[in-house]
Amino acid sequence: MAALIKSIGKRYRSAVILTALLILLVALPAYVSTSSYTIILITNILMYVVMAESWTIFSGPTGYISLAPAAFFGVGVYASAILGDILPLPLVVLAGGVASFILAFFVGSATLRLRGMYFTMFTFGLVELVRNLVHWWEVNITGTVGRLISSEDPLTVFYSMVAIFLAVLLASHLLGRSRFGLALQGIGESEEAAAHSGVNVDRVKAVTFGVSAFFMGLTGATMCWRWSYIDPTTAFNIQYSFMPVLMAIFGGMGHFYGPIIGATVFSLIEELLTTKFPYYYMLTFGLIMIVVIVFMPHGLTGAIEKWRRVGKRGTVKATYDVGKT
After folding, report:
1. What would be the CATH architecture of the domain defined by 36-324?
2. For the packed helices 69-83 and 201-223, what is the interaxial angle rounded to 10 degrees?
3. pTM for this model (two decimals)
4. CA 13, 15, 20 angle in degrees (round to 5)?
5. Among residues 201, 198, 200, which one has the least CA distance to residue 188?
6. How far is CA 28 from the centre of its chain?
7. What is the band of 133 on the pLDDT scale with cuts at 50, 70, 90?
8. What's the longest Cα–Cα distance across the chain?
């Protein structure tokens, strides 16, 4: 009976922890000012958590390293900026996600035959392509670069990010246990074998790439309401491509909660370094990543699992030695 209870506890441990986390997030504004630094900081953390988890949905199982998150985030930002005065906030956010999904689906359908470094370089170039297209459109069509935004209440943005956070976790969980998830794992292990077994490789990759971009677009459309002005450089900042990738690697992509831990810890480290050591921020950041990659190749969660296994082996050995004596 005790073993059964322990097994059930392990099975639902993640769900209990995430439920408690969501309750804390929802209740947080009741204990702090809605415009306080805490709300702003946690909103930023949630933004990076969603971006890292979204990136992992596609790149984690397939091994395709995409540097396109900034393109999809920026499309969401501009969708929100353009439609913000026309549609209510929920529809504006949804429009940003749909626009990013459409872009990712069609781009993915045409380019996901590329692999390895070629795919990575293309996705990096996609960010610059979209940014320059938007800049050209503003200069030659609208006649102005950038646009003013009517900022939303920080609490509205915060709760919107909590809802997107919940949505991306559910999508990641359900996708990982679906036929699509199995197909993605097969593609990551051997794309040719997956195709020979009947998987429509191109469709699976394109759809999943679009789903990943959908949540990035939702995030961009929501975070746009925190700013009073946006332009192509702000919306398509390349930082939004590199940071989610580094956070996912830092946390570990082998576990469902890896990107969450990685994005949270990485965001807090970034906040500490930029406020306390602004002149040594990038140097310290780079050193931290080198240490993680060299000594923790599977990220924080991989290191934790390794330490737990070592601890269990030590406990078992000690018990065995005591039994012998």
Report:
1. Orthogonal Bundle (1.10)
2. 50
3. 0.85
4. 95
5. 201
6. 22
7. very high
8. 86
